[in-house]
Amino acid sequence: MTAIDLHSGASVDRVTGPRSVKGYWSQRGLSLIEISVVTVIVLLLAVLAVPAIQGYLVENRVPKVGEALAHYVLRQHLNASVHGAGQYEGMNIDHFSRQNQDKAVFNIQGQGGQIVVNHGLGKDGELLINEMDSGQALELRLTGVHHAACPSLATVLHQVADEIHIGPEGRLVQVKGEQRTYNAFHAQQQCEDGEVNTFRFVIR
């Protein structure tokens, strides 16, 4: 049993003798309520930090993705000029996967006609490639892109692409074309928050 000496401010344990009030409370430990409050605060901080971290990771991936796509297009363009074939003839996602299977920029899954290429700018975002106009043009389409990649992905590729369309799937807006000069601010306005954006590039 413990008593407190009113003159000295010390607590006196009848078994072990006197000890300070400060020492008594420092040995008391945290209550269940205090532990719960700390846990809630930590969880709130984690929830707030996750989107910021995700955006930071996406933003850092944009130059790598953009440069890899530009390199793929320019290399094919150079080969076509040497061999005299249709500029982008035979270019599709299967061709792309063979050209980039040893690179760590994209996550390539499947084989044959079941190839899926994830670009990494959104959790389940895919890269789609289609030959147009009998090989005279090429379409690159990136779906499920996080808003953190906007407008930097378009900015990286606007020197290569003749047309750029940005926005949620089904509501794409042209931000570069024959009658429209690319403007990063205008491109930024077309993106919506989340991994809901599509980037469409046409190269001729």
What descriptive keywords fit this protein?
single chain, 204 residues, alpha+beta, 5-stranded antiparallel beta sheet, 5 helices, 24% strand
What does this structure look like?
The chain has 204 residues and is of the alpha+beta class. It has one domain (60-203): TcpA-like pilin, CATH 3.30.1690.10. Helix content is 38%, strand content 24%. It is built from 5 helices and 10 strands; from the N terminus they run βββαααββββαββαβ. The chain has helices at residues 21-26, 32-83, 93-100, 152-157, 184-189, and strands at residues 2-4, 10-13, 17-20, 107-109, 116-118, 127-132, 137-145, 163-168, 173-176, 197-203. It has a 5-stranded antiparallel beta sheet. Strands 1-2-3 form a 3-stranded antiparallel beta sheet. The longest helix has 52 residues, at 32-83. The N and C termini lie far apart (89 Å). The model has no long low-confidence stretch (mean pLDDT 83).
Q: Can you name the CATH architecture?
A: 2-Layer Sandwich
Could you tell me the radius of gyration in angstroms? 30 Å
Oligomer status: single chain
Structural class: alpha+beta
Which fold name fills CATH's third level, the topology?
TcpA-like pilin
Widest beta sheet: strand line-up: 6-7-10-8-9
Helix count from the secondary structure assignment: 5
Mean pLDDT metric? 83
Q: Which of globular, elongated, flat, extended, rod-shaped describes the shape? A: elongated
CATH superfamily heading: TcpA-like pilin
* Share in β-strands: 15-25%
Total number of domains: 1
Low-pLDDT ranges: none
**In CATH's first tier, which class applies?**
Alpha Beta
Element-by-element helix/strand order? EEEHHHEEEEHEEHE
Q: How would you characterize the largest beta sheet?
A: 5 strands, antiparallel
